[in-house]
Design goal:
single chain; alpha/beta; Rossmann fold
């Protein structure tokens, strides 16, 4: 298979019951993200931040991969496919996906804000719990907050420069740097495709609208057929 870069966003997991940020009932409307998704918010009230992510971790544990996750998991095993996600859930991995690039980190991982150690997060994190490496009480979820640099950007930009096809799935196209991936891919000569419930208005060569559980498996079937 020629090089393909796939970017997935919150719309991929919405049908599994994990809330998106920008829907009417999304996380933007129910929480002040400046308090729970920024380094400054964590510094002000780490217990509040842990409560928020403990709830999201519990929600993730109850969710199940949907047909779109399963289809992408199949495709991830093909040579030449780079699967990047903005999502911090583990539904792609639970569907069997390999080599998922989590540019915004993972709810299932913990990070020491002091020494940088990382480990598997427990179901419930506590602001008073010590880091297993340095014993300081500075542990946090290993997720990228607003104002922080996403992970693996060098790897992602290299893959985009080499891609023949870039596919964006279930993302609003408003948060950078991910919102700029379509332009990076186009500059490298890649074809671009958006699969989304509603078109984002980005500069894609083609758009397929519909629920992720419908449009993603259909597209993957076409790709796997050759």
């Amino acid at each position: 298979m020629n090089p393909v870069v796939i970017l997935s966003g919150a719309g991929l997991s919405a049908e599994s019951g994990l809330g998106t940020f920008r829907d009417v009932d999304g996380l933007w409307t129910r929480f002040d993200l400046a308090e729970v998704a920024t380094p400054e918010g964590f510094a002000r009230d780490p217990a509040l931040v842990h409560d928020f992510y403990n709830a999201r971790r519990a929600n993730m544990a109850q969710a199940r991969p949907n047909a779109a996750h399963v289809a992408l998991a199949r495709l991830s095993k093909m040579p030449g496919v780079t699967l990047v996600t903005q999502n911090v859930d583990n539904l792609l991995e639970r569907a069997g996906a390999q080599g998922v690039v989590h540019m915004h980190g993972q709810l299932s991982r913990a990070l020491c804000h002091s020494c940088g150690a990382r480990w598997d997060a427990p179901a419930v994190m506590d602001s008073e719990a010590p880091c297993p490496a340095c014993r300081t009480t500075a542990i946090r979820p290993d997720v990228v907050w607003f104002g922080e640099i996403p992970y693996h950007m060098d790897r992602i930009e290299k893959a985009l420069a080499q891609a023949d096809l870039f596919v964006s799935i279930g993302t609003s196209g408003t948060v950078y740097p991910a919102a700029g991936f379509v332009d990076l891919a186009r500059r490298g000569g890649a074809r671009t495709l958006e699969l989304n419930l509603v078109a984002s208005g980005g500069a894609f060569d083609a758009v397929r609208e519909g629920p992720a559980t419908k449009v993603v498996p259909d597209w993957v079937a076409e790709m796997m057929a050759g």
